[in-house]
Amino acid sequence: MDYRTWRGHWWAPSAPEEKFSGTLYCYENGELKLELIGGFNLYVEEKVADGVGYRVRRDYHDIEIMHGISGSDIFTLLDNTCTHTSGPRFFDGSITEQNWSSNRALRGVQLERVDSQIFVRGHLQLERLIHWSDQSSLKIAIKGGGEGTSKRSLERESIDPITAAHQDMTVALRFLSNNIRYDDHIVANKRLAGGKEWAVLTCTPNNPVACKDFDQIQKDLQDLLTLSAYRPCGALSRSLVYETEGEAKDVEVMGRQIFRTPPSQNDTPGEMILSLSDVEFADIIPKWLNLKSRARTGCNILFGLRYIEKGYVGTRLLGVATAAESIHAALRSKTSPIPKGEYRKLKKKILEAISDERDELQDFVNKGLHNNPTYNDRMLELASIPDGDAVDLLLGDRQRWATALKRSRNDLAHANERSASGDEHSQAFHLLEVTYALLCLVLLSELGVSREVQKRAVEKNPRISFLSSQFREGTADHR
Q1: At a CB cut-off of 8 Å and minimum separation 6, what does 245 contact?
Q2: pLDDT value of position 205
Q3: How far is CA 124 from the centre of its chain?
Q4: DSSP for residue 396
């Protein structure tokens, strides 16, 4: 596994005079490891009860902040956990080596506190971002001359940043490029063109904020790309900006990512189910951030199934069934089988009818009687939210889908033997996939995405199209 290293000195801000030599490793997956020569004293000496002698115990405490310096680079390491300590500590007080795992590293700043509100911008590069933007600043220009004498060049056309506002944050999509070149080798019968272009999302708060205040909005933007691409999209890089004496300073953010596409995986564009050719950036960003805030728990479960795709099908099927229920409860919280006014009157009559029963029975009825929709009703209402043609193409018989999902969810949650055999088990994977796709359609519909785009997602995305056909064939075979 590839990694970067920084050799230097490391210390706790509370004891800057006690510095240790060591090496910080940042691996390809974002994992951070600090190997120290020597180390922090993690032992506590306590007097024994009779006052004669001491008792020594290991204090397994984390160090919230560490500082470091390596050449001209300065560091802040956050949420540090000791993973190994060795040395004859009990005999002469020395520690020969100590290893730490850090949750996050900031290269370019030394924070005194985690909540230091000094950062004025946060930059985020996401996988497939420029593909999602459906734009490019690079153009082939043809100038002058007739046929055979015209000259071509690769040029960069300036694209103004696209912005969107959400609460106290402005999100901008910017296009950057460098090393643009175009060489026309006429005699050699070849043309050489090259350069690099990439897109960046920049989050700018109204006022300076702490480093962790960017976490949620950046994670939500990552989820939007994952929804749009219909495949997991990782963060390629993150950085922060603070200002000192009128000068902007860049800070690299390092740490383990929830997902990163393996380098060995083919770089195929695939068929996005949503891009900026379908919606306006200024419109979709605030709508998505509001929607994600409303249905955060269900969406986190849903996209977690994409970020971590390994696991038993049954466990993942239970996860998508739970996400569906959570998303319905968040988006249709007012749904009830009986109008609330009628329900209150009915419950009052029932309690009056058993008023002569013992208190335990009255309490049982009072707490047990609810006006909530059944799981099956929730699923059918979810299926009614997106475009009807898209849902019919995806699920076929909606009632059969809802019944299959309800039975699978109940069997898996209650360990019924039926979950390990029978017709529904053979279709568990297809049921998982079409339910995931339906929830994506629900989110698209709630974002105001057109019916045409929703239907196109089912028809044109290869994964949805193939697995939905397999699911419909499977349910048709078991009628």
Answers
A1: none
A2: 97
A3: 13
A4: S
Three-class secondary structure of residue 48 per DSSP:
coil
Q: Report the alpha-carbon angle 38-44-47, nearest 5.
A: 140
Q: Are strands 54-58 and 32-37 parallel, antiparallel or unpaired?
A: unpaired
List the chain domain ranges. 3-107, 119-263, 295-335+373-477
Over residues 205-246, the pLDDT tens digits come to 999 999 999 999 999 999 999 999 999 999 999 999 999 988
363-394 per-position pLDDT tens digit = 887 777 776 788 999 999 999 999 999 999 99
pLDDT at 422 over 50: no
Q: How far is CA 293 from CA 19, 149, 411, in A?
A: 43, 58, 31
Is-contact 303 223, C-beta < 8 A? yes
- Torsion from C-alpha of 346, 350, 355, 358, nearest 10 degrees: -140
0.90 exceeded by pTM: no
* 17 CB-side CA count, 13 A: 0
Q: Which long-range contacts link 185-188 to residues 24+ away (Cβ below 8 Å)?
A: none
